[in-house]
Amino acid sequence: MHRSYRPRLPPFACLLFALLTLPVSAADEPLQVRIGYLAYIPDPGPILSNVIPEPRDAGLRGAQLAIVDSNSTGRFLKQTYSLTSADAGSTEALLQQAKAQHEQGLRLFVVNAPVDTLRQLSAALPDSLLFNAGSADDSLRSTACLRNVLHTLPSRAMLTDALAQFLAVRRWNRWLLIVGQTPDDQAYANALRRAAKRFGHTIVAEKAWSFDNDQRRSAQADMPLFTQTAEYDVVLVADERGDFGEYVPYQTWYPRPVAGTQGLTPTGWHKTVETYGAAQLQKRFEAAAGRWMNDRDFAAWMAVRSISSAVTRLRGTDAEQIRTLELSDTLPLDGFKGSKLSYRPWNGELRQPIPVVQPRALVTTSPQEGFLHPGTELDSLGYDKPEVSCNFQ
């Protein structure tokens, strides 16, 4: 029988021929992950004390570093991350910038803005997912949740609970509370009052700071008399802008520690956090930004890394799918804090340990040992599920 001759190709040639003849599909193309960064940067106004002002690029630098980190791993997965940033000195101007990014197809945003601006951005971008890296407002996590907003910056309730736990461990239960004049000071004071009640502390006296004079000249004369009252174990200060709080330590009537917005301070991130690989993150940030990483930087970094983790799992960038995955129990996140982090499904807030620091040293990290919770000890900080009245889901 006659048989036609067919030459045999070597195996490597067969494989090359097969690869060359395969159709190019969308799955073979790199996945473009585009993230918007929106910052509200108003005129800070006069600062009465000599504190170092917050960097104007706070937050942005953290987001930029996270883009670099995401691309370093994303290139192996055919993922490319980019950041489109915008800042403005008014809510109206920032809304215009946000809408312009939205028209370009962006649906994932990191926002460093106060609560009122964040609310307006949430309403203007209903089909997008926003990560709040700039507002510590408690109402956003308790009574007025925004469905399309997740929070990487700790709330005031989380911060003051972290501080109150440590003070309870030290049995510094009698507080003198000094409250500044701004709405933010009042909000921080409310969080301190809530924390005191929650962890068994007593506010023996509360005083409103109403002096308009320069404390650099009169702290030694005014502060001892101002803090003269019933005996206390610790002075709690609510002065978020830094009008007077820096001059409370070492000037009180009784020789007592100072905590709150000044002195012993709870924060989302600090230069002195170095364990669990944090030192490497600190060094990479300082090399890129030329300064220390602060809490806004870390919150923005964490926001981008949350997006990156979800995109890797989903192989897509749909905002609603990312939101659903972030709120599930199946996406643990690494934040160099010694615990796997996750978002609370009842208010969208990132569970995370809180460093309690003095200006040049880490003092402790909360939650403190012994403060138990039926789910996770991290939920002993901030608003727990029974305390939240908004319909977040």
Strand content: 15-25%
How is the main sheet built? 5 strands, parallel
Distance between the termini: 75 Å
Principal-axes geometry comes out as globular
Number of domains: 2
Sheet/helix structural class: alpha/beta
Mean pLDDT: 91
Poorly predicted ranges: 1-7, 11-26
- CATH level-3 fold name of the largest domain: Rossmann fold
Helix content: 25-40%
Would you report the number of β strands? 15
For the biggest β-sheet, the strand order reads 2-1-3-4-5
Note down, in words, how this protein is organized.
The chain is α/β, with parallel strands linked by helices and 393 residues long. The protein has 2 domains: 31-154 and 270-366 and 376-387, 3-Layer(aba) Sandwich (Rossmann fold), CATH 3.40.50.2300; 158-266, Response regulator (Rossmann fold, 3-Layer(aba) Sandwich). Helix content is 34%, strand content 19%. It is built from 10 helices and 15 strands. The protein has helices at residues 11-21, 60-74, 91-103, 115-124, 156-170, 183-198, 215-226, 278-289, 295-314, 319-326, and strands at 31-40, 79-88, 108-112, 129-132, 149-151, 174-179, 202-208, 234-238, 258-260, 265-266, 333-334, 340-343, 350-351, 354-358, 361-366. It has a 5-stranded parallel sheet with strand order 2-1-3-4-5, with helices on both faces. Strand 1 (31-40), helix 2 and strand 2 (79-88) form a beta-alpha-beta unit. Helix 2 (60-74) packs parallel to helix 9 (295-314) and helix 9 (295-314) crosses helix 10. It is globular. The protein starts with 10 loop residues before the first helix and ends in a 27-residue tail after the last strand.
